Amino acid sequence: xxxxxxxxxxxxxxxxxxxxxxxxxxxxxxxxxxxxxxxxxxxxxxxxxxxxxxxxxxxxxxxxxxxxxxxxxxxxxxxxxxxxxxxxxxxxxxxxxxxxxxxxxxxxxxxxxxxxxxxxxxxxxxxxxxxxxxxxxxxxxxxxxxxxxxxxxxxxxxxxxxxxxxxxxxxxxxxxxxxxxxxxxxxxxxxxxxxxxxxxxxxxxxxxxxxxxxxxxxxxxxxxxxxxxxxxxxxxxxxxxxxxxxxxxxxxxxxxxxxxxxxxxxxxxxxxxxxxxxxxxxxxxxxxxxxxxxxxxxxxxxxxxxxxxxxxxxxxxxxxxxxxxxxxxxxxxxxxxxxxxxxxxxxxxxxxxxxxxxxxxxxxxxxxxxxxxxxxxxxxxxxxxxxxxxxxxxx
Length: 395
Known about the structure:
This protein is of the alpha/beta class.
């Protein structure tokens, strides 16, 4: 993996690069979009760029990758690379784009660090970059090959269901009348829409039904900015896309998928993070899963709990399932110990349990800490982040 000389140089310069990584990534994106404005218009999430979350995610992934190489010079962080590669593949990232990123990233590093970027330092960090980039290109090529290229396909909306005031389910079938490709519960697709200003923005949405159906089902939560711009794509879908309309969808991607074994499971979600859990529960019910399943969900209120009826119904079909819902504003009669934040102290977690988490990052961090305290192995706690993966940026 990383050469001995580069390992020593990266180890010595990591604190300096790490301290400046926020400024580096800000300058990088400014230079990239100035030279290639189409990337911001048609590939990158403009909302995340405006909020700065994409910069945080990039900074976190670079720092985490470099740190891992220094601490484990003969290995590479495959779990992190898989997650990034699935997201890139869902966007249609091409191998040649890594050279474009390299050009502007290293210009930003030189611009921020100046004379500190000696030829030796530049060579070491160049090695780090291409180790990461080439690994991602290889994984993404395999993902595309597995999906016959993984290209975009037009789908027709056959039904739209208003789950809550801010969540709508869209059921879609291929507009060309062809077969619905298989997927694994927990995966997502990208939806590409053309906005009024001509930009073609892309967002990922989890598939909220099990494989085998003649239609695809996604749940879309309308994003309210709360001081930031409202979600462009989610609001477009809610306002403009109805039965009979068409959407461009990618092939399914994502590494938060159920393993085919009989381990005890814990499925924990919050808010719109419920969508991949519904697909998992439906699949477990369809396949006659007999091992214990613990279902945990947190929401603001029962009225805002999207797909609540499905959540309860699929869990009810399992022979050994326990369901625990927490609400900030519960209905009368709701258990007091299920009000507010999720507290797993009174929830039984069996030895050997495998956990799947999806929801806002603070929720998942709290649940993960509680699971670790209960003896669940870190390798058995899997998660999905909607939007930029900021987990690494805060570790």
